[in-house]
TrEMBL record:
Intramembrane glycolipid transporter that operates in the biosynthetic pathway of dolichol-linked oligosaccharides, the glycan precursors employed in protein asparagine (N)-glycosylation. The sequential addition of sugars to dolichol pyrophosphate produces dolichol-linked oligosaccharides containing fourteen sugars, including two GlcNAcs, nine mannoses and three glucoses. Once assembled, the oligosaccharide is transferred from the lipid to nascent proteins by oligosaccharyltransferases. One of its GO terms (cellular component) is endoplasmic reticulum membrane. Keywords: Endoplasmic reticulum, Membrane, Transmembrane, Transmembrane helix, Transport. It is found in: Endoplasmic reticulum membrane. It comes from Spizellomyces punctatus (strain DAOM BR117). Pathway: Protein modification; protein glycosylation. Belongs to the RFT1 family. The keyword Transmembrane applies. It comes from the Eukaryota. This is Man(5)GlcNAc(2)-PP-dolichol translocation protein RFT1.
Length: 622
């Protein structure tokens, strides 16, 4: 503790070059992790959706939304409270006014309290530190069983509602299995909380990653079995396309529990779960057992409880914020259900969003996470930020936006004309002949660069903004949600764009969010008086200066779009010959465009990227 405290000032004043180096390295590791973990699940999901009808995918999307709603409302506020729970919540090691400390038994659980007999003397740090941490872990374990009860209540409430209104064509077998899977998954919450409280991220990643593979394999196997048999059933429940998805979800939930138990029972992991050498031999069932906690308050009174009042109040305070977060995350699918759209449109939108968001998960998410960490580390105290840190952060921000715009040109001018070809290759010619899917994916290509820029600008705001700014952003997000719903209603009902209208609404939503973040970014840099040449700073913040390319590049992009657009109109994409020729034509156009783009951006963009790569390769933390 002492060494950490003494080194804190030195750590806070690390050079921004070292922070930039570690951030770039972190982005590379996260990119490889996302790429490897998403590849297998994407391939299996693609196989499942290829052999499933669009209507089946739409029904499964509705049932996944229902199951996800139960899970989110049951546990998200508790998980957010866990993130806010730190070692500071345990009895203070250096505070002589603390009236009692926890006596930890051999199995690592909280035992009886014993009053301190040392007067104002501070007890041994190791005893109080271990006791406080064990008590805090036990509080979290006790609270982790609450989501199971909440989930059961929500499932019961939904079933009561479901039997009093029309079913809207939902298969009852799949509905029951999805709801059962939600309750089973909530049963893994104590294991999840135990891993999170002890920072066992490697265990969680392995278990959840394997569970995803189990779900995909189970769904694919059942789907293929159903298509080969005229009738099939499991435990008396008639099997259909949606039921295959439901049993895959149940397999995922069951494997979560089995995987966590098996991983946590290993001796090497059990030693990381415990706070003392004696407790390392305790069984996992002892660590997960609910236990009444007795605690002496600051007024000398003894309180006994299972659920800590403070953690309950923190979790309750996050309820409204969790609901808003859920609406923002799943607002598109909620709107589809609320507007009563048919299962074909829901299935088309799910297939397009799963495919279109792949680039965001693999490339954009690692960049956003590392950029957020870098900006927070170098700019978290605006009044004390050095001029070099301001210049480095602005240079990185403008380079990242320029990179997203450069990457976005390929989605806008090339990918939009390859939606039909891609869907035909991945999902078959039948789905490629569905206008709603092709149109929605083409519009989604326009959405990708907007999504990337929004991620970088929001990473800056979340890393640098104070509590007042974050609060203002929350209000702005409510306005964005209202605009999203309005645009979606107009485009889908008045202009009959189907799921493509929902993508247009997402674009409008993202543009509004970028506007708010960009306004904050400009204010942040303009208020600084450390610039020797303010005009250079203003030029760096100019949107015009961030747009990559020149006239030759723009002309080539326009010609490439026209050529790749006309080709499928003349030759179609039904045969493999036409697909290959279309892809070769686009590849040739992309090669010429890339050569001109490199010549134009050799110094401004690619030179900066090479510079950052060299810093990441040879940079030091000092």
């Amino acid at each position: 503790m002492t060494a950490t405290a003494n080194n804190a000032p030195a750590m806070a004043t690390k050079d921004s070059g070292g922070a930039l180096s570690s951030s770039i390295k972190g982005a590379g590791y996260l990119f490889l992790l996302q790429l490897s973990s998403r590849a297998a699940t994407f391939l299996l999901n693609n196989l499942v959706q290829r052999v499933s009808s669009i209507q089946t995918v739409g029904i499964a999307s509705d049932l996944e939304l229902l199951s996800g709603t139960v899970l989110f409302l049951s546990r998200e506020n508790l998980r957010m409270a866990l993130l806010r729970t730190t070692e500071a919540d345990s009895p203070n090691v250096s505070d002589p006014s603390t009236k009692g400390e926890v006596d930890v038994s051999a199995n690592g659980l909280v035992g009886n309290l014993r009053k301190r007999k040392t007067g104002n003397a501070v007890p041994k740090p190791s005893e109080e530190y271990m006791g406080g941490n064990a008590m805090q872990q036990q509080k979290l374990i006790n609270l982790s069983y609450l989501p199971i009860l909440v989930g059961v209540f929500l499932v019961a409430a939904f079933l009561c509602y479901h039997y009093t209104v029309p079913t809207h064509g939902r298969p009852m077998g799949a509905l029951w299995v999805y709801l059962l899977a939600a309750i089973v998954e909530l049963g893994s919450e104590p294991l999840y909380i135990l891993c999170q409280s002890r920072f066992l991220y490697d265990v969680r990643a392995k278990v959840e990653g394997t569970a995803l593979l189990v779900r995909c394999v189970t769904t694919f196997a059942l789907t293929m079995t159903i298509t080969s048999l005229k009738s099939a059933s499991i435990f008396g429940l008639k099997m259909g396309g949606a039921e295959a998805y439901a049993w895959g979800q149940l397999a995922y939930a069951a494997f979560l529990i089995l995987g966590y138990v098996r991983a946590l029972k290993r001796q090497s992991v059990m030693s990381r779960l415990s706070y003392s050498t004696e407790s390392s031999s305790a069984s996992l069932s002892h660590l997960l057992r609910p236990c009444k906690i007795r605690e002496i308050t600051g007024h000398g009174k003894t309180e006994s409880f299972y659920l800590d009042p403070y953690l309950l109040s923190v979790a309750g305070s996050f309820t409204a914020q969790s609901a808003l977060k859920y609406i923002l995350t799943e607002g598109d699918r909620i709107l589809l259900m609320w507007m009563g759209r048919n299962n074909d449109e829901k299935g088309a939108y799910k297939m397009v969003s799963d495919l279109g968001s792949l680039i965001a998960r693999i490339v954009f998410q690692p960049l956003e996470e590392t950029a957020r960490a870098f900006f927070s580390r170098t700019l978290s105290n605006p009044t004390g930020v050095r001029k070099e840190s301001l210049a480095t952060s602005l240079d990185l921000l403008s380079t990242l936006i320029r990179f997203h715009l450069c990457l976005g040109t390929y989605f806008v001018f090339f990918a939009t004309n390859y939606s039909g070809t891609l869907i035909s290759i991945l999902y078959g010619n039948t789905k490629a002949s569905t206008p709603d899917i092709v149109l929605a994916l083409s519009i989604y290509c326009l959405y990708v660069p907007v999504m990337g820029i929004n991620g970088i600008t929001e990473a800056f705001l979340q890393g640098v903004g104070d509590s007042h700014t974050i609060k203002k952003q929350s209000y702005w997000l409510v306005v964005c949600s209202a605009v999203f719903a309005l645009v979606a209603y107009v485009t889908m009902n008045l202009f009959t764009m189907g799921p493509g209208g929902l993508v247009v609404a997402n674009i409008a939503n993202m543009i509004m969010r970028i506007y708010f973040c960009w306004h904050f970014i400009r204010e942040f840099y303009l208020q600084s008086r450390k610039w020797e040449q303010p005009s250079d700073m203003k030029r760096s913040l100019s949107v015009k200066e961030m747009i990559p390319g020149d006239g030759k590049v723009y002309a080539t992009l326009v010609v490439s779009w026209i050529v790749t657009y006309i080709f499928p109109l003349l030759y179609g994409w039904d045969t493999w010959k036409s697909k290959i020729l279309h892809i070769l034509l686009g590849g040739a156009c992309a090669f010429v465009t890339s050569a001109l783009m490199y010549a134009s951006e050799r110094q401004k963009l690619f030179g900066k990227l090479r510079e950052y790569y060299r810093k990441a390769k040879s940079g030091k933390e000092y």
